[in-house]
Predict the 3D structure of the following.
Amino acid sequence: MLKVLLRKGTELILVLFFVSLIVFFTFRLLPGDPAQMRLGMDPAPEAVEALRNEMGLDKPLVVQYAKWIGDVVRGDLGKSMFDGKPVTELLSEKIPKTFELAIYGALLAIVIAVPFGVLAVLNKNSWIDKTARVFSLFGFSIPAYWLAVLLMLLFAYKIHWLPAGGYVPFNDSPSGHFKALILPVITVGIINSAQIFRYLRSGMLEVISQDFIRTARAKGVSEWSVIAKHVARNALPSLITIVALNFSLLLSGMVITEQIFAWPGVGWLMIQSILSRDYDVVQGAVLMSAVIIVLINLLADLINALLDPRIKHN
């Protein structure tokens, strides 16, 4: 376990270092001057130069990066160039909203994928299996934005059951809060359930073809007992891995869903900050997202190491 922690800790540091490099230098290649955008249309060149100097944009990129990464190590992600709020404060407001949407979406994906995966394995190559595979292919193929717009048109504009978007604080209206959650949760849940189903089905089929499963069946163990006691237990590490991976992808892909449904999470914040060239906010949001994703995958690896002793020695 200690070896796993040390290896994953080293990987975490390297991943965050390269993420910081990529997001810092790539974002500065985008067209547009933050100082000029902040001052509005046709500002005086002297005012632009003075603001660039105040914001530190006149210094070489290497110097800017060194200052920024030094502040990050001390826990300071900077301030928004436009409203002056600390980036940590902005992220602390947005991250819980994104996590709420991601957690509900992941739970819905698991609720859909696991029963269908088990039924597909128990009825391999039957109409149940083929139907489930068709639906998983549908989930793989459709873009999130297309499904989001389709659900919005149907439930919000056609039959008027649910709001088209927006965010309602739970303290203001619990029912309004959960109504606003339904459509984005269905969107991310359906998309991610397809991937979990495919990996779960293939993992269970791989386990079910092994010798110890045939031995259990030869002893007269019922099919449901074989699935519950042997197949599911041995397929659990791969299920945990794919759920963690999908949760990570879900977090990183939340930008589109949050934008469509006007859900004010980290994805929504990143889009607004990119459009306004708010460097520190985008850098802080991407770096924080990378930290969360790496930690989620680290947690999944540790759980798998506990479940499967063979992993401890890798």
